[in-house]
Amino acid sequence: MTKHFASTIAAMISQVFILSSQGDHLIYKDFRGEAGSDVVGVFYEKVTALTGDQPPVVMNHGDLHFVHVRQGGLYWVATTTADSSPFTLIEFLNRLAALVKDYCGSLCEKSVQMNFALIYELLDEVVDYGYIQTTSSDVLKNFIQTEAVCSKPFSLFDLSNVGLFGAETQQSKVAPSSAATRPVQSSREQGGKSEIFVDVIERMSVVIGSNGVVMKADVEGEIRVKCFMPSCSEMRIGLNEEFSIGKSQIRGYGAAVRVDECSFHQAVRLDEFSSSRILRLCPSPGEQTVMQYQLSDELPSAPPFRLYPTIERDSGGRLLMYLKLRCDLLPRSAAINVCVTIPVPRGSVSVSQELSSPDQSAELKLQSRAIEWRIPRFPGGTQLSALFKLEAPALGPAPLMEVGPVVLAFELPHLTVTGLQIRFLRLSPVQPGPSQRWIRYVTHSDSYVIRV
Amino acid sequence: MPYLGSEDTVRELRRHLSNPNVQSDPLRYRSSILKVIRAMSQGVDVAGLFSEMVKACATVDIVQKKLVYVFLCSYATLNPELSLLVINTLRKDCQDPNPMVRSLALRNMVNLRLPSLAEYVEQPLSAGLRDRAACVRRVAVLGWAKLHNLQPASEIDAAVVNELYGLLRDPDPVVMVNCLRALEEILKEEGGMAINKPITHHLLNRLGQLDVWGQCEVLRVLQRYRPQSESELFDILSLLDASLVSPHPPVMAATLSLFLVLCPDLPAVSFAALERVRGPLLAACGSASRETRFTALCHIQLLLRSLPGLMGAHYKRFFCGYAEPAYIKQRKMQVLVELVNDDNVAMLLDELRGYCTDVNADTAQAAISAIGERAATSHTRCTDPVTSHSAATDRCPPLSSAVVQTMRDLVWVCPQCSDTVCSALEGCEETLQDSQGRQALLWLLAVHGERVRSAPYTLEGFIDGVRGEASPGVKMELLTTTMRLFVCRPAETQDMLGRLLHHCIEEETDMCVRDQALLYYRLLRCGMEETRRVLGGRRSEPSLGVLIGRPAEPISQWASSFNTLEPLKQGAGETETTGRASPQHVTFDLDSDLSDTLNSGGFSFSPAGVQAPPLTLSLSPALSPEEFERLWTQRRLDYVCLEERIRCPAVPHCSPQSLQAAMQLVNIQTLAFTAAHASPWRVYLYTHAQQAAQEEVKVTLKQRPRDEKALQGFLSILTAVLHTLPFNTH
Question: CB A8 to CB B392 under 8 A?
Answer without folding.
Answer: no
